[in-house]
């Protein structure tokens, strides 16, 4: 089992809109690719106020082949849509983890 984790820092002025869009549009679109078994979204808790809020969006994938297929066939368009919709309002990085 692999975990594809996307950590996103989103500006607070669009946080509510972003979270709604992620739950109703983006995450369902990612799941509809058929590459992932499950997904979860977590808010990163901080001790201090910042201008952004961070979230961990987790997608569970069975094989590296499924992950490679997602990255080759689906990720470019889905990532572009996210970048365009929330331009200059977020930062994101991806991590692929293997369960041991």
Low-pLDDT segments? none
CATH architecture: 2-Layer Sandwich
Globally, the shape reads: globular
Number of helices: 3
Tell me the total number of β-strands: 4
Order of helices and strands: EHEEHHE
- CATH fold title: Alpha-Beta Plaits
Rg result: 14 Å
Helix content: 25-40%
Structural domain count: 1
What is the mean predicted local confidence, pLDDT?
96
Key structural traits:
100 residues, alpha+beta, Alpha-Beta Plaits, four-stranded antiparallel sheet, 3 helices, 35% strand, globular
In short:
The chain is an alpha+beta fold. The protein has helices spanning 15-31, 64-73, 75-85; strands spanning 2-11, 38-43, 52-61, 90-98.
Secondary-structure blueprint of this entry?
Layout: E1 2-11, H1 15-31, E2 38-43, E3 52-61, H2 64-73, H3 75-85, E4 90-98
Antiparallel strand pairs: 1-3, 1-4, 2-3
Describe the structure in your own words.
- 38% of the residues lie in helices and 35% in strands.
- It has helices at residues 15-31, 64-73, 75-85; strands at 2-11, 38-43, 52-61, 90-98.
- The chain has a single domain (2-98), classed as Alpha-Beta Plaits.
- The radius of gyration is 14 Å and the shape is globular.
- It has 100 residues and is of the alpha+beta class.
- The mean pLDDT is 96.
- It has a four-stranded antiparallel sheet with strand order 2-3-1-4.
